[in-house]
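To: structure desk
From: M.T.
Subject: fold request, one chain
Message: Could you run this one when you get a chance? Sequence is below, nothing fancy, just the single chain.
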Amino acid sequence: MASTIETDIQSQPEGVYPPSFCTWRLLAAVSVITEVCVILLGMAQSGYPGWAWLGMASLYGQWLALFSAAGVCVMSGWTSRLSARGAWIGSWITAVLLSAAFSYAAWLMAGFSGISHFKLSDSAVMFVTKSALSVGLVAVVFFRYLLIRTRWRAELMAQSEARVQALQARIRPHFLFNSLNTIASLIPVDPENAEAATLDLADIFRGSMRRADRPISLGDELQLARQYLDMEKRRLGNRLEVDWRVEELPPRASVLPLMLQPLLENSVGHGVQSNPEGGKIVVYGRAEGDQIVVTIRNPTAAEDHISSGHGMALDNIRERLLLAFGPRASLHTSQDAGHFYTILSLPYVEYSDR
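Reply: Done. Structure tokens follow.
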């Protein structure tokens, strides 16, 4: 059985490790799977198990499964030092060994107490073997599911990272060209502003090089967004007006990098730059319960349509939100006669730089 797990894992990319069983979600999944197995076992033996047998078998099965899962959780600090393949195999071996130890202790206690629901006419070796074999078989199936799910999520994150990089690669030359022209025009007339623009440009490109799956603080993301709009303000002059209303946003909230900058770039390109007279971008946000809501409003020209580039940026952000936060995060858009609205909603999670 260990060789089966090893075969499944050999093709995995380096660094894809088994999830920790220290979370209540996985422990709840273990408990549900165990109860299903107990019911199926009872039905296979006598059609419909009696309440006494079902209660005793459920009690034994739940304690056996949770004891094994807790042991895998405790040993995760050790297995995490192994290779990805070794971590999966080590977790499976830990579960099987702990189930054997627990079942032997249960056999001894049942013998002393006179409980007969587990056919204690079986020898200790037979009882322990049956329990360990059951846990091993169920663990193989469950670990394979976790393996496939982990690989799937890793591949989706890699695709999301590649799409972010592709989006930024498409944006960088155009934005860099405009920014350098702006800096060059400022040098003879306003050298201090040209220096500030150069530093802003360096910070923007440094921020664009962050990994898409590594969170940053909302304060840092807002600072990067301000620097981006400052650069565009230098280029567009009085045609661009920005109104920041973000005082109620918690700066220590955890967000994914480059969430706001692509949305603001759309606002500039499709809302302000497309209007000969320019326009105002309004960014306002607040905390609503356990959610953070950021709304961006920009004008729309009469002939303006959402381009493919606009849609690609929105789709990419939606996918990143789904991977990172699931249904708890969302990105919606709406439009009225004169304005386009982008509403970003995120769960409030405290940022930690550790």
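Reply (cont.): The domain at 187-347 is CATH 3.30.565.10 (Heat Shock Protein 90). Let me know if you need anything else for the meeting.
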